[in-house]
Amino acid sequence: MTAEATGTPSTRRTVFLGCGSMSEAILVGLLSAGTPAENVTATVRRSERAEELRGRYPGLTVLAEQDDAGANAAAVQGADVAVLGVKPMGIADMCRSIGPALDPTTVVVSVAAAVTIATMEAALPTGQPLVRSMPNTPLKVGRGAVGISAGSQVTDSQLDAARAVFAGAGTVVVVPEDQLDAVSAVSGSGPAYAFYLAEAMAAAGVELGLDPELSMTLARETVAGAGIMLTAQDADPAVLRRNVTSPNGTTERAIAAFDAAGLSQIIARGAAAAAERAAELSRELA
């Protein structure tokens, strides 16, 4: 039996059940934060993917279901933290399949969207510590934003262990589960909003006569650069905006046009629609 997950990330044994692009991004952050690859195990479906990951991360143990149908159950034995990285439709089945092999103190962490704590707790052994998370794609570049919510059986030290899984790849916030849909609407879907803005800026440049490739370069680098400015400690987007908005200048005229079109309300409606859809998906998957 493992001890309750109170150690440092470098001493905990962490398992990734499914290692697609999102789970791999979390894995990279965990390794960069000091966890030895020897303390991490991953499972994948195909043997080729297993070989790829072993070559990329020396010391990492990777089991392929193609070679061993019981790879997931074998991987979780003695684990401190088990990260569920399969698609939402497969989460309940995964929980049921690994349940008999889990230590009672192993913290199960789900990165699947829309699958509620109640749904997963019903599929896991009674009393199993469970944390639900809402990560986003900038984890892949070490600038992620992750919301996590604790299940009914999670201790403070176990919640810290779950937080540490993501901390190497981004900012982690703890919220009640009923706020995860809002987190999803802001940070989960949020990268797409920024990409959409860059698309619109590039298209506007073309309308103004710029070469398409040049306009895309300008839009892409401007959005990326502004994002970096926002990473400064205590950066306030309203203050940053005002700093580049000279009275009676060109930027002020553009912002006035945005306000007249109700852009902030449009964004709010989009976020509300995203949160509503997240709630619908949770009901469908329950």
**CA distance, first residue to last residue:** 31 Å
Instruction: Report the CATH superfamily of the largest domain.
Output: NAD(P)-binding Rossmann-like Domain
Strand order of the largest sheet: 3-2-1-4-5-6-7-8
Q: Give the count of structural domains.
A: 2
- Please compute the radius of gyration using only Cα atoms: 22 Å
Q: Structural class, please?
A: alpha/beta
Overall body shape: elongated
In the CATH hierarchy, the third-tier topology of the largest domain is known as: Rossmann fold
Q: Report the β-strand fraction as a percent range.
A: 5-15%
User: How would a textbook summarize the main sheet?
Assistant: 8 strands, mixed
> In sequence order, what are the helices and strands, one letter per element?
EHEHEHEHEHEEHEHHHHHH
- The CATH architecture of the largest domain: 3-Layer(aba) Sandwich
Low-confidence stretches: none
Q: Quick one: CATH class of the largest domain?
A: Alpha Beta
Number of helices: 12
Helical amount among residues, as a percent range? 40-55%
Number of beta strands: 8
Round the mean pLDDT to the nearest integer and report it.
95
Give a verbal description of the structure.
There is one protein chain. The protein is α/β, with parallel strands linked by helices and 286 residues long. The protein has twelve helices and eight strands. The chain has an eight-stranded mixed beta sheet with strand order 3-2-1-4-5-6-7-8, sandwiched between helices.
